[in-house]
Structures are given as C-alpha cells and as structure tokens.
Design brief:
- By secondary structure, chain A is of the alpha/beta class.
- Chain A has a single domain (about 5-255), classed as P-loop containing nucleotide triphosphate hydrolases (Rossmann fold).
- Chain A is about 35% helix and about 25% strand.
- Chain A contains nine helices and twelve strands.
- A six-stranded mixed beta sheet of chain A has the order 6-7-8-3-9-10, sandwiched between helices. In chain A, strands 2-1-4-5 form a four-stranded antiparallel beta sheet, with helices on one face. Chain A has a two-stranded antiparallel sheet with strand order 11-12.
- Chain A is globular and about 50 Å long.
- By secondary structure, chain B is mainly α.
- Chain B has a single domain, classed as Orthogonal Bundle (ABC transporter involved in vitamin B12 uptake, BtuC), CATH 1.10.3470.10.
- Helices cover about 75% and strands about 0% of the residues of chain B.
- Chain B has helices at about 10-35, 40-50, 55-90, 100-115, 120-140, 150-175, 180-190, 200-215, 215-220, 225-230, 235-260, 265-275, 280-305, 315-330.
- The chains are: A alpha/beta, B mainly alpha.
- The interface of A and B includes residues 53, 77, 89, 93 and 137 of A.
C-alpha cells in the first residue's frame, strides 16, 4: 500500500476563526513533512483534520488516492496512525497492553491478539528503547517514558501514513534525536509518509524534507529549503531569528 | 494495577470464569438450602431434578429458586451496567445510577406505591428509568458539534437531574400515608422479597452480556479516550450510544426486579478490575457472574441473619461489600 497523502484546497477553522485556507500539497512515502508555527496557529487542528478526526470546511484529503470522507473508521485506522499531543489514562494498564491497543484496527471483532501481534508490540517497545518494561504499569513511568510507550503503539499500528503531534514532547535530548531517527529511518525503509508537528527548529531543520508553516490564518507548504528559512520563520514567529551551525547541526535561534 | 491474575489468552479467561461460576453455584446452593426451613442438599437435588411434590420441594421450587435467580440476574445486570458506565464516562466513580436513572425509576415506583397501586410498581419503575435516561441525554446534547455528548456534560447533567429526583423522592416520602412508607423505604434500599419471575432480568442479562462481549475490545480502546478510539478505528458515536442504551436497559431491568440496590454496580467492577485487570473481554463476563453471586449471597444473608425479620438486600450488599473492597484496595501494590 502506498502512503501518499494528498490535500486539495483544504480550509479549516474553529468557530469563526479561519486557521488555513485553500491549502494544497502532497506528502509521498519516505518523506518527512514538518509542521511549524506559533502557539494557537492551528497545528494540532490541522493534524487532527488530516487524521479525519475534525471536519474540514472545504477541500479534500486523500490517503493513497482514496478520499477519507468515504473511508470507514476501521479502514482509516489501517491507513494512518495519529499520535495526540497529550494522552491521559483514566484506567490502569500495563505497558504491553497499551502498545497492543495499536493492533486494534488489524483484529476482527471476536479475535484476540495473536502471538504475532504480541511479538510486534514487543519489537516496537524494543525499538523505542523500552524493552523489559512490558509488565510495568504505565502510571509508574516518567513522562518521557510514557511518550515513548505512545510512540511504540504508533509503530505497532504499522500504518503507511503517520501523523505525529509533537512526538518529542517530554523527551530528553538523546531520545528526541533517537525517536526522530527511528521514525524517519522506518519511513524511508517502508515507504511511510510522515507528518510531524515540531516546536524545536533545530529538529525541524534536521529532519524535514518538506514543511508547512502555519500562522495568522494562512498556511504555506513547500520544500523544507523554501519554508524553513531565517526570514520566513522570523516573520512566522514574529521574533527575529539568527542562524547558527551548519550541515546537520544548522539551527535557528531567537535573537 | 499489577493484577497478577490478569489473563491474556482466551483459555486463561475461561479458567477464570469457570472459577467464578463455581463460586456462583455455591452461592445458589446455599440460597436454596437456607431459610426459615432448612433444606438438606439431597432435598435440594430432589427438588431440582426429581418428580416430587413434598413441602420442601415446593419451598425450593416456588419460593427459593425464583428469588435466588432474580438475585443473580439483578446483581449481574447492575455489575455489567456499572462496568459500562465507568468506561463510557472514563470515571471510576460512575455507577449504573450516575446519570439519574435510579431517581427516575424511584419517583415513578414510589408514586405507584404511595397511591396504593403496588401492582404498577415494576412497570412504573421501568418507564421512570427510561424517561430519566432520555431526559439526561436530551439535556446534555450540544448542537452543531461532532461530539454531541461528552462525558463531562453527561455526568454533570445526570448528577443535577438525580438531585432533582432526590428532592421528589423526599417529597413523596414525606407526604405518603404512614402505612406505605415502610414498603417505599424497602424499595429504595433494594429488596428482593417482592421480586416476581426472574425471566425479564435473565433475558436482559443475556442481552447485555452478548452486546458487551461483542463490543469488548472496542470498549478497551474507548477507555483510552474517544479521540484515540476513533483514530484506532472504533466508530465511537455508534458504540457509545449502543453501550449507553444497553446500560440503561440493563439497569432499568434490575431496578424493576429489585428496587435501587446500591453498591453492586459501583464496587463489583472495581473489585474485579483489581483482580483481573481492565480488559473488558474478561471484566464484563466476570462482572455478570461475580455481581450475580454477590447478590445471591447478600440476599441469603438478608433473609436469614436476623430471621424472622427480613432485611432489605441493599443493606447487606454494602455490609459485605465495603470490607471486601477495602481489603482488595489495601492489597494493591
């Protein structure tokens, strides 16, 4: 299954406020598209809309050519995985149980998680560096560890399109890089399309192939080299930025 | 909760459920043997399986079996409905009555009792329960959103409506003729001495169990939040409405059979969650059996503890359940 995400003439808004208007762009398998923008610009709403969780005002969204308006919840869940910005657990659960939830879209009504599903969940935990914590209570983990449990559930879901809302929140430096390395490498190997909301401009510059900048009711999409420039981002965040480092370590810092 | 017994395979679940079924059978056996007339195990077996028309057989067949089966079905219904509400509202304090259902049932049933129409108590309770549920859902609905019912709004609306029913209950109790008040109080606390044939409750129990099991894995995902569930392929709106409707009908059937028995619906799902974990595929059938067994035990105690005086069973469920639950909670690491 190919992973292409196509967006045509997308308009979204909350109440009377327009967040973006007439946005069209595509993300192909193996590509990483980063969404940047100031607080309240609509990054989370955009990602939720792409996941089919929020309605759009106009335009269409398609996974591999299929308009999501015509996909059932179950088929949509086999096509894309969505990581919410915050997650909260009302009921206690173990780490392995939480990751196995990612297998839900692949199981029929009466079937139980097979040994293969449990194996996938264990491998996903190993990939995010949490092997050995399978039987721990999620509530007993640190914030960063819980974030990685949520990421392991995304890995276990094995969808061709991944929509990640601030996957690096609560992660320390090492794990920020490790997780983004993991997801971009998996995307290249498996032809998955990645859409990631990031606040850290250094990480955005380091991992983005393409980018969307969203602020003040407008969104522009393009190659990372066009969107993530010092001038454009200074204007986007309404704060002057200076460039530092080069190559993989190039970054933009607030002046 | 590190539930050491949490089963993860269908065969482990079957072993666990068979164990609980054994407990339920013991509870039913004790219920058939004890009472104002003690019946030996042999006589119980004869009453169950042989052609016989002795007094003991009549007591077992005509009095104790219907009452014990009513108790079992009512307890199972309340525990399942409680488990449903706790998941749907993602609130461990939810019980079958949290959306004001018991209040609606009570006002209608007490009005029937107070006006001397005791025969109408059960149908009135059933109607009152459903009217109250529909009222809460109508009032909590938000127009023009893709999530017309949120857990918080339902809870708040349910609690406010329940307070309203509470005031009407107090009003009915204070103006009712003296002779009716004792019966009204028993109904409010929950009492099986007036339970009729257990079949309505059993059909409801079977239906609630079947619907619950068919949606159990969806509910597991739903317990993690409705957005996550939608993103993982659960048709959240449909599943939520189906489970709310099932919980309401299950509770209405229980209330119609035995009045507003408290405690079972809140605490049985919790106690089982401490032991078997929060997998609904295990929790829901376990609730049906353990809730039933608890109420059979409690009703046997209610009939015999201070015989010949019969206590309302709701008093006994709490007296047994509170220490049991506190003990389970204290063992939690």
């Amino acid at each position: 299954m190919s992973a292409r995400l196509s967006v045509r003439g997308l308009s979204i808004g909350i109440a009377n406020r327009t967040l973006c208007d007439d946005l069209s762009w595509e993300v192909d398998g193996g590509q990483c598209c980063v969404i940047v923008g100031p607080n309240g610009a609509g990054k989370t709403t955009l990602v939720r809309t792409l996941a089919g969780l929020n309605p759009c005002r106009a335009g269409s969204i398609a996974y591999d050519g299929d308009d999501i308006a015509h996909l059932s919840a179950r088929v949509a869940a086999q096509r894309r995985a969505w990581l919410p910005q915050v997650d909260h657990d009302a009921f206690p659960a173990t780490v392995l149980e939480t990751v196995l939830v990612g297998r839900h879209p692949h199981l029929s009504r009466w079937s139980w998680e097979s040994a293969a599903d449990i194996d996938r969940a264990r491998r996903a935990l190993a990939e995010v560096g949490l092997a050995g914590l399978e039987t721990r209570e999620v509530a007993s983990l640190s914030g960063g560890e819980r974030r990685r449990v949520a990421l392991a559930a995304i890995v276990a879901q094995e969808a061709p399109l991944l929509l990640l809302d601030e996957p690096t929140a609560h992660l320390d430096l090492k794990h920020q890089v490790q997780m983004l390395d993991l997801f971009t490498a998996r995307a290249r190997e498996r032809g998955q399309a990645l859409v990631i909301v990031l606040h850290d401009l250094h990480l955005a510059l380091r991992y983005a192939d393409a980018a969307i900048a969203i602020a003040n009711g407008r969104a522009s999409a393009g190659a990372a080299s066009e969107i993530l420039t010092r001038e454009a981002l200074s204007a986007l965040f309404a704060h002057p930025l200076v460039e530092a480092g080069d190559g993989n370590l190039r970054t933009l810092l607030p002046a | 909760m590190a539930s050491r017994f949490a089963p993860r395979t269908p065969s482990a679940v079957i072993v666990l459920l068979l164990g609980l079924t054994g407990v339920a059978i013991v509870a039913l056996a004790i219920a058939l043997m004890t009472g104002s007339v003690a019946v030996s195990p042999q006589s119980v077996l004869r009453a169950l399986f042989a052609r016989d028309s002795g007094t003991e057989t009549a007591i077992v067949r005509e009095l104790r079996i219907p009452r014990a089966l009513s108790a079992f079905a009512t307890g199972g219904l309340l525990a399942i409905a409680g488990a449903f509400m706790q998941v749907l509202l993602r609130n461990p304090l939810a019980d079958p009555y949290v959306l004001g259902l018991s209040g609606g049932a009570a006002v209608a049933a007490l009005a029937a009792l107070a006006t001397g129409h005791a025969a109408w108590t059960a149908p009135a309770a059933f109607a009152g329960a459903l009217v109250s549920t529909l009222l809460v859902f109508a009032l909590a609905r938000r127009e023009r959103t893709n999530a017309p019912w949120t857990a918080t709004r339902l809870l708040l609306t349910g609690i406010v409506i329940a307070s309203g029913w509470g005031a009407l209950i107090a009003l009915l109790l204070s103006i009712a003729p003296e002779v009716q008040v004792r019966g009204m109080l028993f109904w409010l606390i929950g009492d099986l001495s007036t339970a009729g044939a257990p079949w309505l409750a059993f059909v409801a129990l079977a239906a609630a169990l079947a619907i619950g099991l068919s949606l159990a894995r969806d509910l597991n995902v739903l317990a993690r939040g409705s957005d996550i569930a939608e993103a993982l392929g659960v048709p959240v709106h449909r599943v939520t409405l189906a489970v709310h409707a099932t919980a309401a009908l299950a509770t209405a059937a229980a209330v119609t059979t035995a009045g507003t028995i408290g405690f079972v619906g809140l605490v049985v799902p919790h106690a089982l969650r401490l032991v078997v974990g929060n997998d609904q595929r295990v929790l829901i059938p376990a609730c049906a059996i353990a809730g039933g067994a608890l109420l059979v035990f409690a009703d046997t105690a209610a009939r015999t503890l201070v015989a010949p005086v019969q206590l309302p069973v709701g008093v006994v469920t709490a007296l047994i359940g509170v220490p049991t639950f506190l003990w389970l909670l204290s063992r939690e690491p």
